[in-house]
Amino acid sequence: MILYRTRDGLILEHESHFFSVPEKSIDDLVLFDNLHDHLAHIAHSGAKTNSIAADKLLPPIGSQEVWAAGVTYLRSRAARIAESKDAGGGDFYDRVYSAERPELFFKSLPHKVVGPGSPVGIRSDATWSVPEPELALLINPKGRIVGYTAGNDMSSRDIEGQNPLYLPQAKVYNRSCALGPGILIAQEPLSPDTRIELTVERTRGVAFTGATTLSQMKRRPEELADYLYRDQTFPFGAFLLTGTGVVPPDSFTLQHADNIRVAIDGIGTLVNPVG
């Protein structure tokens, strides 16, 4: 089941049919002890509605904060070390990858998150900007993962590479986070074979494409969620980006008018232009 937030309210897709969800917001839904069963009941007894027009989609978020995990893939570790060669070699990223405690950082407030079709931003003071395609977890207030969506954790690699303490500036700015198109509501964890694919389209064709699978992620989603919720309270739950295993080459940087596509098996494709 896929849950969408639209200009006409919340819509549920199940077996190619669409249903109106009576709750007004995702905030209301994450408070259910068994969200999957609640939505399954709507899919079996609720009123059907029309399919969703692309221009009606909104970012699938309510009042949730968005957090992110870093260096969870070996490929990300290698990229962080390389970009930080002028800041002492980046061996701190090697230590983060090997440590018991994951790297977690704040990414975005809801009003700065963009949804399908809306432009993501690149910093005006950055020279090396990349998209980071990631699986995003929807975690309820009790710390249980109840859904999954596609995320784009936009990053200014030159700023982060100058000094690891510049991470908030490299990661947190207007339109630096995209989520969507909808939330896969599932009771079971995603398969390790789940594929995450990034494609960047440019005027003359495809500027970059790459893919990975969840099997390449060192840490389990449940582990990341557990660390996030230690000594923290999220009254309406939280979203957690789980890190990227797809990194463009050092010669690549995003350009205005590029089109970024993040596709995840079972969830769909998040498409955003660069504005």
Molecular structure report:
- The chain has 275 residues and is an alpha+beta fold.
- Helices cover 19% and strands 35% of the residues.
- The strands form three sheets. Strands 1, 2, 3, 4, 5, 6, 7, 8, 10, 11, 13 and 16 form a twelve-stranded mixed β-sheet that branches. A four-stranded antiparallel β-sheet has the order 15-14-17-18, with no helix packed on it.
- Helix 3 (74-83) packs antiparallel against helix 4 (91-98).
Name the CATH superfamily assignment.
Answer: Fumarylacetoacetase-like, C-terminal domain
* Count of DSSP strands: 18
**End-to-end distance:** 31 Å
Order of helices and strands: EEEHHEEEHHEEEEEEHHEEEHEEE
Name the structural class.
alpha+beta
The figure for the number of domains is 1
CATH topology (fold) name: Fumarylacetoacetate hydrolase, domain 2
Count of runs of 4 or more consecutive helical residues: 7
TL;DR?
The protein is of the alpha+beta class and 275 residues long. Helices cover 19% and strands 35% of the residues. The chain contains seven helices and 18 strands.
